[in-house]
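Figure 3 (text version): structure tokens given as input.
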């Protein structure tokens, strides 16, 4: 185990999904698809979609309040908020600012970062580095997305996948020899910016009548290429994570991959010889909720009494960029 992570613990965890359920049958009334196709090709049965007046920050606030409560802290104990999202409330200011205000916290620093669906691992790396090298004691890491706001509801190749949700953890620097963050490994390759992106609305192609007409303000994806790279990069990252910590799959109690497609998860399990009973899956109920998917899964299985305090969890993710990352953690 790495000595430099000894003192960072996961003090609390919380998650939130909106109330509205959108089933595969509901989707088959909007685009040319079927429950059977979606279930077989993706493993998704239904997903949650935020209300019109619910923004990403609203989802994040709910998750954050639950994580702070789980940590048995108050809002005033939080020293820093970092928030990973690809669907911010506005282009500026940071969504973390809206969350800070709604939580009733004043003056502490807050910022967003953009690592798409690998937000959890990127956030862990940022938080642990800041906790180990600064005066901060309790960091609130939130990952949340309202992907439904960026989904093209006329594109059957993407609208069946994406969903809304948020997850949060409170990370604290503590004396002790049971690190909550055992190790984190993150990577990226900017060669693949074209396979998953929102082409317009930024400085390269500001929003115009033309970009809206061409539906360029929605998520565009080369599904097959993303699939291929997801299996390759998550497999490599998780393998390296185990190797450099001298751990075998038999030492890990739970494997939580980004919840993107059941076939991607099965391919990772095959590649790393992970028994199916160690794979933690919530994709069928919640779809692809971007960076929050791993926190949602951990929180869900913790509440069911399946993930227990102290057990080793291997998490692995990938997302637009292309970004990827893995982490070994324990609650
Ligand atoms: O957080 C990261 C986000 N992205 C991902 O994880 C995406 C990774 N990729 C995938 O999950 C899969 O590539 C998809 C689920 C997006 C697509 O599955 P696929 O098995 O790769 O399908 P495909 O794109 O190769 O398309 C196969 C067929 C096509 O028809 P033809 O050309 O063979 O006649 C598609 O037009 O399936 C058709 N198709 C659909 N049919 C019914 C595509 N989407 C649908 C649909 N319903 N929703």
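Below: residues designed for each position.
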């Amino acid at each position: 185990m790495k000595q430099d992570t000894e003192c960072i613990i996961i003090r609390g965890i919380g998650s939130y999904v909106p109330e509205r359920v959108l089933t595969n049958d509901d989707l088959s009334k909007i685009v040319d698809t079927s429950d059977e196709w979606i279930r077989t090709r993706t493993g998704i049965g239904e997903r949650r979609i935020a209300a019109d007046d619910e923004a990403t920050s609203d989802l994040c606030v709910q998750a954050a309040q639950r994580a702070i409560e789980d940590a048995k802290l108050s809002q005033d104990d939080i020293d820093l908020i970092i928030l990973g999202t690809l669907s911010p409330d506005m282009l500026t200011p940071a969504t973390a600012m809206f969350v800070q205000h709604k939580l009733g916290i004043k003056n502490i620093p807050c910022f967003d970062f953009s690592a798409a669906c690998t937000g959890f691992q990127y956030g862990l790396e940022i938080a642990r580095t800041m906790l180990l090298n600064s005066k901060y004691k309790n960091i609130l890491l939130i990952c949340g997305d309202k992907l439904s706001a960026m989904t093209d509801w006329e594109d059957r190749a993407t609208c069946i996948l994406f969903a809304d949700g948020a997850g949060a953890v409170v990370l604290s620097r503590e004396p002790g020899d049971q690190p909550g963050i055992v190790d984190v490994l993150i990577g990226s390759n900017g060669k693949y910016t074209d396979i998953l992106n929102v082409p317009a609305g930024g400085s390269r192609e500001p929003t115009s009548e033309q970009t809206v007409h061409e539906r360029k303000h929605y998520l565009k994806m080369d599904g097959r290429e993303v699939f291929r790279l997801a299996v390759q990069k998550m497999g490599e990252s998780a393998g390296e994570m185990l190797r450099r910590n001298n751990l075998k799959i038999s030492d890990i109690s739970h494997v939580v991959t980004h919840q993107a497609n059941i076939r991607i998860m099965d391919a990772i399990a095959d590649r790393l010889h992970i028994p199916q009973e160690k794979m933690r899956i919530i994709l069928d109920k919640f779809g692809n909720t971007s960076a929050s998917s791993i926190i949602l899964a951990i929180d869900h299985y913790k509440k069911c009494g399946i993930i227990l305090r102290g057990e080793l969890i291997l998490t692995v993710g990938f997302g637009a960029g292309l970004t990827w990352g893995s982490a070994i953690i324990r609650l």
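Residues 33, 37, 41-42, 117, 156-157, 160, 221, 223-224, 226-227, 230, 260-261, 288, 319 surround oxa(dethia)-CoA (CB under 6 Å).
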